[in-house]
Amino acid sequence: MKTLLICPADRPAVSALAETVPLALLPVMGKPLLAYWLEHLADLGIKEVRVLATDRPEQVRAEIGHGERWGMEVEVVPVLRELSVAEARSKYRPKDEADWPAEPRDVQLVDRFPGLEQYPLFDTYTGWVSAVQAWLPHSATRHRVGVREIKPRVWVGLRSRVSESAKMTAPCWIGENVWVGSHAKIGPYAILENRVVVESGVEVANSAIGPETFVGAFTELRDSLAWGSTLVNWRNGSRTSVPDAFLMCSLNRHTRRQKAGNWLGRLAAGVLMLVTSPVAALYFLTAKLRNQPSLREFIAVRPQLTNGPSPTETFHYYELANCRGFFRGWPQLLNIMRGDFAWVGNRPLSPAEVAQLESEFDRLWLAAPIGLVSLADAEGVVGAFNDDARACASFYAVRASWRLDLSILARALLP
Prior knowledge:
By secondary structure, the chain is an alpha/beta fold. It folds into three domains: 2-119, no CATH class; 145-250, UDP N-Acetylglucosamine Acyltransferase, domain 1, CATH 2.160.10; 256-413, no CATH class. It is built from eleven helices and 29 strands. It has helices at residues 33-43, 57-64, 85-92, 125-141, 263-289, 332-338, 351-354, 360-363, 375-378, 387-399, 402-413; strands at 2-6, 27-28, 31-32, 48-53, 73-78, 107-109, 148-151, 154-156, 161-162, 167-168, 172-174, 179-180, 185-186, 190-192, 197-198, 203-205, 207-209, 213-215, 220-222, 224-227, 230-233, 239-241, 248-250, 256-257, 295-301, 304-305, 314-320, 341-345, 370-374. The protein has an eight-stranded mixed beta sheet with strand order 7-8-11-14-17-20-21-22, with helices on one face. A five-stranded mixed beta sheet has the order 9-12-15-18-23, with no helix packed on it. α2 links the parallel β4 (48-53) and β5. The radius of gyration is 26 Å and the shape is globular.
């Protein structure tokens, strides 16, 4: 028997859920959503499954492989857009093959749990929570190894440690390799995914904590979805990034600060700053005599490589006020000397702008150092944060080289 599964693509109403993984791979009580579907199809005797994936198909393929663990043959097919059930059936199900289940089981969209068609997952955050809560008793008892029910409707996974003084209120799920500190209050309707650390005095109710997330002492999570430093109130849909790592952060913070230039570039910035300092002094004097501000202050997010939520470390930089052209960035020569900027890189982004980087392609902006000049400057892109600027930033992050840097400098600085 054969069947088709369609992975959901963009769902703007629940965009925070797809920050780190495609929606089809969202972890639910230790397993990706797609795994529940493959288990379900295996139980029905399906032997061949074709998975149509639009969002990050390489991650989908890496996660499910070729289907060996379910005793079936699985093929992941990248598609340019999410197909409707009718389109997928017309394109990928041959009409002359009889080895398919009857409609609608032959082609199914992975936007619900198997058998819970009345609970759509991705229409709203509230819908997601309702579906997960309805799925909890089904998930806890099927295809599980090592899960303990320490009290009625309180399940704890392998290698997890729960303090004796912690209070567990059913129903709740504690995943694998989870640490729950003393006097914590977990539940009702609390889900702690794998590798979560909850310190002492934490209260979690009607909430889900994503994998590899740290929740600091005496933090209270109610009606929330927490993953890394991202926090969503599922009742009203509000979303925020928690800046304080002692309250909440990602445990998988294998990040490194982007190197902004080398010692030679920093030395060159120092020499240029020294040579041009008389001109800068004249500018500051003129601004003072005219009773005008001489500097404008900005906040930038420091780029870094991360496989979790977007970085939140910031620093300040300045531009000359009421000044145009290259000389406007004269104070940023000091940033180059400090290693915050490079001569060539991507334009700096504010925290608000970083929050708008929704796709993996957009987030490439942060995979390169901040530059005094950028590819967008060389290309004459006017908008600081429009689609053209994003394309230039992502291209530079992928193709950066000393040859490209020289080309950008020449085009940006020379008339």
